[in-house]
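Form P-L/3: holo structure prediction, ligand pyridoxal-5'-phosphate.
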Amino acid sequence: MKIAGFGVEEWLNTWEKSATYDISQSTISSMTMSELLSLDGVDGQTFYAALNKQKMNYGWIEGSPEFKSEAAKLYQHVPAENILQTNGATGANHLALYSLIEPGDNVIAEYPSYQQLYDIPKSLGATVDYWHIHESDDWNPDIEELKQLIKPNTKMICLNNANNPTGTILDRALLEQIVELAKTVDAYVLVDEVYLPLDKPEDFVSIADLYDKGIATNSLSKTYSVPGIRLGWTASNHEVADIFRKYRDYTMICAGVFNDMLGTYVLKNRDKVLARNRKIVLNNLQILKDWVASEPKVSMIFPRAVSTSFVKLDIDPDQTEQFFIDLLKEKGVLLVPGNRFDMPGHARLGYCTDEATLREGLKRLSEFLHESKYTNK
Ligand SMILES: Cc1ncc(COP(=O)(O)O)c(C=O)c1O
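OUTPUT (holo model):
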């Protein structure tokens, strides 16, 4: 089985530890254990007392009943039994694709988005057609293009809502149109839902609530600020969950006792986490907007209040990667160059870091845009 290198991950693996001002990440400023455990008002005393008594066996294979019922509360129509815990959303996407995609299938994937969603199906022998997002349409894809792409052997449509890297949301009306098309060929619709719009979370509609063959993947890594616990899940109908059960026995067994306990704790304190994170996202988004307004060498279609954004830079597109390597070496600032998403001349800007890092990172990026030999003069 052959698979392409993962553009964003390879970039981050190489450079992220050398950054002083890391404005590349798509997580809302990660929490320390102490920050996390202060959420319940008793400084984690209850959590640690339970942890001390817990044997580090395999624990609950599918996730504890408490975890599953907390995760099920995120959906209108998904019972706890249809939630399966995974190793992050990465594990959830892999599980869904590995379980359902076969050689000869056709998969349509929103493009660009999270690379797993097109390169895993290709590696499994499917033909993959790209459903492009368009800058000219606020990074939305065009439903007419999907109508042209859909085929009798389309097994799955893969989407990322909100989109990484642009932060654009697919709204209910568009999702409903996608579902209608998927129904014509009985295709699954897999949606990676790790980014939630925090201005109005209630506007967000999960594919698992819209379509019987909708599969939602999610995790605690982005919206919930704890990527370090590597905890995600799938939400689907019962029949699909049963297929997943079979495959996950081969690929993961379980996600770990400690992770499950902490993940359950985070979901139980969801409102407090979201309140913290809404503040960060809205505050930093305003800083980002002010910077874009004051910097003539950049432009941006602003994200919905999610933690990833995609900036267009006045640089030589052919030198995008070199520009960002030089920026890191000379100014200590890290972004993800757009060529890693096949979009040279752009970059992913993770603005939901701490405010001081964001402000200094943007200031230095501006300086470099005016100094670099790769900037259009
Ligand atoms: C759309 C998307 N899905 C999944 C992931 C990985 O999530 P996790 O840490 O839960 O594996 C990322 C990380 O950047 C992402 O952007």
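COMMENT: Residues 270-294 form the longest helix (25 residues).
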